[in-house]
Amino acid sequence: MYLSGRRLEELSFFRKLCICGAKLGLEVLVFTPDDVQGNARVNALTYKPEQGKWVRKSTAFPPLIYDRCRYHGTENYLKLSGFRKKYAELRYLSRPLGNKWKMHQLLAEQADIAAHLPATIPFKEGKEFGHFLTRYPVVYMKPKSGTGGRGIIRLQRLPGGRSYLMQGRDPSRRILPVQKVTTGQIAAKVAEWKLADQYIVQQGIPLELKDGRVHDFRMLVQKDGNGEWQVTGCVGRIGPKRSVTSNLHGGGTAAPMETLLYNRFKDSAKVNAVREEAYELGLNVVKHLENKFDVFCEVGIDLAIDPKGHVWLLEVNPKPSREVFRRIGQNGTYVKAISRPLEFALWLSEQSNDKPIE
């Protein structure tokens, strides 16, 4: 989707896709719903490595669509859903999977995944919300469709059980000042953001490191050039001070998974066991979701590891970033993370006996 000034949010990533595609014999075309012309044609962008620049090209819809659209508001959501409805015959490498509440319900259907899910309910002011706060010393409130840590609230029950320490980020990702609140004040804050019916409430998993900063892990699971699911990599993310989220967009930093785990557990055998449990969970998740949603090429999975080493599944993101691998110097993994959707596209094309992608 175009942002202000017809700027594309992931243009650097798209350039790398074009360069990688050229090496595989694929032409990568970048377009938005605004670029659609008459007769099912698009005025697309493509990057020419030999010229070192982007050029426009009027062409028919490509045979495979890799959807990287992020909605950023109702207008874009309607524009994209309208495109999908009008051109339903197009074949997609990726697809929307549903909001956080729907995903929780679907994943809870499988016992070996459900054991890794924090307790979760939709937010509704009243007794159920109060009971949930009483049951867990820390809970998180998250927008059902939020990304990048926007609007996430952490509530810690204070002694006496009648008030809570609230901190987090507003819908614009600004850090909220820490404040003492009652359940009524919590509901009022959410209502002020006009998101009262768009929140879930989730059991808090202990995420604090020794220095008080929170951390979690981002796993990237992708289809490879043989159409098989593979864990491309998993990286630890550490939030800035006073933040309740670890998102890199919110100022977080990254570290190799094994390094972060070893710093916590000081035991190589424990680190290997946790890593194996996390990888097995990631593969179980994508296979279960593929049974529900049909073929797709990748997901990002947010995981938490509690002080005992148990792996918790926090969130599934169907349009994951991969910059975290570059940030920590895992350049081989970063290149693989870029190339795998294209390798899978090539495999899909060959399997379905499509005409060669030109």
UniProtKB/TrEMBL annotation:
Q: Which domain of life is it from?
A: Bacteria
Q: InterPro entries this protein is in?
A: YheC/D
Q: Sorted alphabetically, which Pfam families does this protein's record hold?
A: ATPgrasp_YheCD (PF14398)
The protein's name is YheC/YheD family protein
